[in-house]
Here is the input.
Amino acid sequence: MKTWVTPGGVHPPENKHQSVSLPIGTLPIPDKLLIPLSQHIGAPAKPTVEIGKKVLKGQIIAEANGTVSVSMHAPTSGTITAIEHRPIAHSSGMLAPCIEITSDGRDKWKKHEGIADYKHASPNTLLKAVAKAGIAGMGGAGFPSAVKLNPGRQRPIHTLIVNATECEPYITADDSAIRERAAEVIEGIGILSQILGHPGNIMIGIEDNKPEAIAALEPHVVDTGISVVSFPTKYPSGGEKQLIYILTGEEIPSGELPADIGMVCVNIGTTYAVKRAIVDGEPLISRVTTMTGDACGINRNYETLIGTSVSHMLAHSEFKDEACSRLVMGGPMMGFSLTSADVPIVKTTNCILAPSYEEIPEDNPVQPCIRCGMCAEACPVSLLPQQLFWHSQAQDHERLEAHNLFDCIECGACSYVCPSNIPLVQYYRNSKGEIKKARAEKVKSDLARQRFEFHQQRMEQAEKDKETKRAARREAAEKAQAASGAKAGAGSAADIIAAAQARAAAKKVSPEQQQAKFERSIAGAEMRVQMAEEKLAEADSSQTDEQKNILNAAVEASKQKLEQAEARLAEHIAEHGSQEQNKDKSGERVD
Amino acid sequence: MAFKQITSPHAHASQNTAQVMQLVLWATLPGLFALTYHFGWGSLINVLLATATAVAAEALILQMRGRSVGFYLRDYSAAVTAVLLGLALPPLAPWWVVVVGSLFSIVVAKHLYGGLGYNPFNPAMVGYVVLLISFPIQMTSWVTPLALLPEGVSHPGILESLSIVFAGYSPADGVTGATPLDSFKFSDGLLVEQIYSQNPLFSEAGIAGVGWEWVNIGFLIGGLILLGSKIFTWHGPVAMLAAIAIMSELFWDGGSSDSPGSALMHLFSGASMMGAFFILTDPVSSAASNRGRLIYGALIGGLVYLIRAWGNYPDAVAFAVLLANFAAPFIDNYTLPRTYGHIDRRRATEKEEVQ
Here is the structure.
């Protein structure tokens, strides 16, 4: 079958023969198993047990927390003895929530059975069973399988690719599993095919350095529509993107998933776990893990219970501490060094590498980059690692993104070939982290700015609304006054004052001026009262009664006006206070 | 065992920078051998003197910069610069020419810019051009090739060569002369055919010029060894040589007296092969991507031909390389490879990907 060739790639010494001379073995059940709640991509599982509870093998101890999450099951029977933060296998040596089970040594299964007639079960039923079994991708990333196998109706799957490449040196977990369990692996692929609606194209991609595994698979794929495709060994052919290109010649567009182009790619270990879950009803509680490296007397694969500590594995593999240069979880290209051997094996742990100083010596000191370009020749995704390194040192995020930093799969091929021993991948990881942080901060600050701008706008709008209302009120008042003035007839003193008052209001005089004005009008009114009274007194002897009446009325009218003026002043003072005390306030109250 | 946090990958290929540099040094041997055979001991003396000066200068500068002298000297980069400069200089050049050039290469062109990996210009070529401009007489008198020495005259022996270089003795008459590119350029009024039949530099030669063609073949062999060892990719050298060949063919007028010369002459004369395989392949100062190196190489080839044909200097590799060094960062901006999963290549300067 035609295969395509990826650019770049390297050929590190394979070192796979050491661990396949013995069949897959089992380790004695450890006294204590430590099950981290997060062994996968997505939300950590939620514990469903309390300390002191007795559990049976296969019993659920933590349930998936949301869709993108997986459940955890007891790998053996025993008692829950702790639910707390413990060191886990992580490149930073961090603590994470874990459940500790103290084994009772009986290894007693809970009652379990598979879906007897799975061939007639609906994809949905099968998906639920996969989810219930707590299966996450076993190739390394640990993406919840039930999510991957359910790409939705708008993304019909035409190609199912089973990744048996195992391109990392030393690791033989998939190789040995295929050799010994080919029938079950193929049955698992059949179940996956059923879940995905029987894609037309099913391929097992495998490097040509595993002839035994290929030979083991071949009799089982006859008449199944599954093809076993082998291709020349080259690191990193086992990367999902690389394998898809090798087998189909198609590329997953940057930032998208295989499902977006109608493909699903699963690790071959996952297919075995799916078979065990559906046919046998066994959740994922153990996996094949390679124990290898010259610092161990025994190099072989173990069917390892999830939660087994690395030190337990080492103790049963004739481990020689003083001969070991470093302890690596995973392979020599992408694995990470452990800062303690007391960390558990998880669902994604395919290898524990304990190399001697001859195999993997101490790193040589870093020399300057001479831009030789060997890294660019080795890069499987056609990046320019030397330029990325340069811009990474300069923290030039724009240039890094323009150079497609985020398409780097961190395979380590560039660092592998670098003659100056520069830890290139570390620079890229660091820069990716910085850029992600900067992006998150930008989102945050954008949000804060938006909020502030909205607040500002809201305040302005409120101010405008108030202003409009005030204007409307003012207008209404003016109209009312004009109307009342027209009724009473022009020339009346009350109207004049009212008009003056309205004018004064319209002129927006300050409260001080207003008060002064009121005071003046009182003084004026007092004077008029006085004058009217004097006229009345003078008129007493000489004027007629009629005239007296007119003068009396005038006195009454001016008295009335004086009262009005006084009332207004009182009102004004009541409203604004005496101006000597409240000058500071007065400015904002003009209206 | 110590539990250390060590970043992946844990495995490393065995090749290191010092080995790369050493391989480059070994690969200059065929060229050096051809030079020594055809032009006497001068080139060997140049190479050794330049190396001694450069390594001493490197050590001194490293000491002044507070770097680990032993660690950095062991990368052999100073030796490579010096050997390339020594090979480019005329045999039997006075010692101070070699010393000044080496010092300039290491101190100014390399360390003032930040040392190994940070020099924007090829240090050997900077040294060469400084010498060419400062000391034109010493830099343009070349030794007569062995086959063309007059009757009874031979190349000076080792001791005599050392006296010429260090004590300023004059070599015997007929020992120095013009290079093929030189005499071709200054043979005005002669048809190409006439030059080839009258000038022994050409009439006695197989393809390009007595002695010089072998020197170029020597560097070609060394270059192919490096290419086979994947020290560099084919893009730069092939682009340069192709550009020279295409330009020569394009401007070949059938051999008039104005002709700038044939493709064969340009490819196998002067510093063509050395330039193509040992100078423009200096990764530090060249373009980064393969596509970029194609453009970079073609630019050098084109400039070499332009200057040889219409410039004042008979050869032009040093100038062409330095001019292209200027252009390299610019070329890099527009020659990113297409990354997996992207429709097209991007530009280094873009803010957002253009879809």
Observations:
- The radius of gyration of chain A is 43 Å.
